[in-house]
Every structure is written in structure tokens, then in C-alpha cells.
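Lab meeting notes turned into a lecture example. A postdoc, R.K., suggested we walk through two folding results consecutively so the class can see how the record format repeats. The first protein's sequence and C-alpha cells come next.
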Amino acid sequence: MQDESRISKLAVTLTVVLTGLTLSCTKYDQEIKLEDVRKSQGLVLRKTASGPVYSIAIRGRGTISGRARVTLMEEGSLRKTETLEGRVNFQWGGDWYGDTAELQYEPINVTGGDMVIDYSFATLE
């Protein structure tokens, strides 16, 4: 019984580690720098490769003085959202089948900072 418990714990640990490695090793081939983090912005992410899209990876990095919110929209519906404050470091990824994605950035009480969005669309070609 103890061996089964150890094997189960090992399997969970390996799954967590491999998921983390996959996200940390993602190649982001495009980036957008927000011009002014004090202003609301809508950003359209576009694929550059040919072929049908099957997933997307997005990473936000930088520093925000204050609070802001970034939202990923899919065909007009909210897909993901993140509240940002201080050091910005978030990663999103998953299935995606469109050639574009829309991000909405909304400062709540931002007085300064900088932020970059790195992203990549995975395609079948």
C-alpha cells in the first residue's frame, strides 16, 4: 500500500514539474510593448505562420505602479483575466483555433511602469 502511495505522489509531482517546464520553455515569437500603461488599450494578436492555429501562448512581463487588469477575449467572450500589481509575470496558454486574439488592458489606478506582452500561435505547418 505504501508503494502505491509513493508511486501516486511521484506521478503527481512529475506532472506538475513537466507542466511547469512546458510553460517555461515556450517560444514566444512575437511581442507588443504597451505604449503607456496609464491608458486603456485594446491589442490584437495576430498569427504570422501559415497553417491552421491549434494553440496560443501568452506571457505578460514588466512592472506596474498601481493596479491594472488584462483580459483575453475570444470572439467577444471573456476567456481569461488577470489582475496586475507591482511586478507583472503571468502566462496563459491552451487550445486556440482563431488567427487572432484580442487582449484588453485596463488600468485601475496606474501611475507608471512598463509592460510587454510576448505571444505565439502554434500552427499545424
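The second example is placed directly after the first for contrast:
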Amino acid sequence: MSAFILKISAESQVCERLSVDTLSRSTICTLLSTDVTQRLRVPVSPPFLSDSNRVLCYLIDARGGDKGLPPNLCGTCLYHTGCPIYGDLIFVLCEQDESEEAVFGLSRTQADTLAAWLSEQFPFLHSDICSN
């Protein structure tokens, strides 16, 4: 059964829903064109996750700034420190315990609901996910 992730492009600020058969470290690294990622927890839990024991996280290229990747406005806003997040980012679900490294995909409904929620929070995002 396929899972879904959302990828936000740093250059275009486009939100894209991707179907993945296997959500492994290798898959994430390939999608972000890197060999090392960093996981950041979204500080606010979207309403559709209120009944879940998992939290919403986003994964980035851990060396995006060193590589000179463009800033990702969505990721920077979610980071809440004023420090920029560089490069594309991918939304996944994670265990609440930060020591657990496993990441999980979203159902299609969760991915579509997350895309709509992100569009409400960040009007600059471009997405036609919910109309597909």
C-alpha cells in the first residue's frame, strides 16, 4: 500500500503530493538530493492529527545552507527562530519520542488535508493537490 508525502520546493514554493512505496532514509535522501537529512518537528499540530500518537515533522537537507540552496520560506516560518531553512522539505509523520528515527507516510486524505492546512497557514504556497 502506497503512502504519501508532501514536498515543498524552495525555489517555487510549490506543494507537491508524492506517492511512495517505501519510505526509507534512502528514499528521503534521494528526494532531497542529499546524503544527510535533519528532522524538525512542526510546532503546531494540525487538527487532523489530534487523535494520532504521531507528530508532524519535516525533513530537510542538513547541509542545505552550506550547499547554497535557496531558502525555503515555509520551512523558515515553521522553524520559529528567524534562522532560514534551505532547500526543499518533505513532510512526514514521526513518533512523539524524538529518539525514534522511523518516519511514516500520510494517507491520501491526510496528505490532502495537510496541503489545505498549509495553504491556509502560508498563502504564498502554490498547490493544486486538493483539486486532483
